[in-house]
Amino acid sequence: MKNKYIDLIEQTFEFPQDEFTVEDNELYFHNVPLMDVIKQYGTPLKITYLPKISSQIQRAKRLFNVAMAKADYQGTYNYCYCTKSSHFSFVFEEALKNDIHIETSSAYDIHLVNALYDMGLIDKDRYIICNGFKRPQYIENIATLVANGFYNTIPVLDNKEEFDLVEQHITKPCNLGIRIAAEEEPKFDFYTSRLGIRYNDIIDFYKERIKGSKRFRLKMLHFFINTGIKDTAYYWNELSKCLQLYCELKKICPELDSLNIGGGFPIKNSLAFDYDYEYMAEEIISQIKNICGMNGVAEPNIFTEFGSFTVGESGATLFSVINHKQQNDRECWYMIDSSFMTTLPDIWGINQHYPLLAINHWDHEYQRVFLGGLTCDSEDFYSGESHSNAVFLPKPCEETQYIGFFHTGAYQESIGGFGGIQHCLTPAPKHIIIDIDKATGEYYTRLFSKEQSYRSMLRILGY
Known about the structure:
By secondary structure, the protein is of the alpha/beta class. It has helices at residues 5-12, 34-41, 51-71, 89-95, 107-118, 136-147, 162-169, 199-210, 233-252, 277-295, 308-311, 340-343, 345-349, 412-416, 454-460, and strands at 20-23, 26-29, 32-33, 45-49, 77-82, 101-104, 128-130, 153-157, 174-179, 216-222, 258-260, 301-306, 315-326, 332-336, 356-358, 366-372, 381-382, 391-394, 401-406, 430-436, 443-449.
């Protein structure tokens, strides 16, 4: 009878997978034995596996460059990293090894760009795509960047009034972008994105305010769909509308030569994840080329802004099961040694799912469980995965059960308030970096941050 945890995984998914293997009934993540890492650092524990960041960037570059070659596409492809996905220095140090550009979304992001330049990680010819709603300080910081010689800085106008601030503060020649206020998916609470300028207003706005300017040139049209790049009628319809606008604008604005299709390549949120990246890249390039050809305009240079895709799959979060509670005849709770609300806030905030796997005891029988966090909040739990409205883990035994949530590398620290006050004063866990020694091919670890101390929280609170 196949009733062991390893049987469940092998019967439910294609397993092993690229990043997950099992040896001696223990889980390996990118060939790293996680039980060895736990024995060294303990739990709860955050992990960032750096080589995955570079491999994701190279994967996207390869996908789009091959698609362009197949279609004889004349524009270039430019990969931008969204700073908001993870601002950590180790993420940028790895990502910037791959000749990428940067997308910002706030005034403080510009200070981060300056820090990267001071560290020698970027030069002044990188594209700095400045997105987001811009208060005066953001515009002032962008102006300083342009004045200091970052000539490929492109402020993307989110609304018409921002151009007044741009004219006031940016005194050197500067390229601009305009963000389209895209229509949202029908399931949204509203019809049109709060970000960007209406389709029907963009051409008139260009003619009245930007055309003929001695300082500013419209370089880029920015298109972004909140639900990401998906093979749906909704996505292709919105892309087609954007391309028609690009072609209309290009005919009266010859300096327009770039189309930013934003972010949205998804990441694996389940072992059952299925997404044809190659098809999507080829279809996007094909549609852009065809519509531009039908309108008799040159094909634009393509920019993408991949955040979660860049860093998400590099992350993992490991916990110990510290208690088992049979609360009724059907519900067995496994209590973890941290909180989902503080450590993985996307779980309760937007009902996000991640690949969840046992780290040890793969040879034990399994059962359905509910996972509970340490806080006293009723929302601090995890009860289902993306492929199933249930969680299955090995049955309890005398030895500690360890579990891991994987592909958690994007957004969790910034949403959870890294280094700040945590719900119920639950400390943020240790965070380690895993990299590969190029000389030996062996992995090595280093501690990035210790577990948060009570003193740091009390200091913030004024004690």
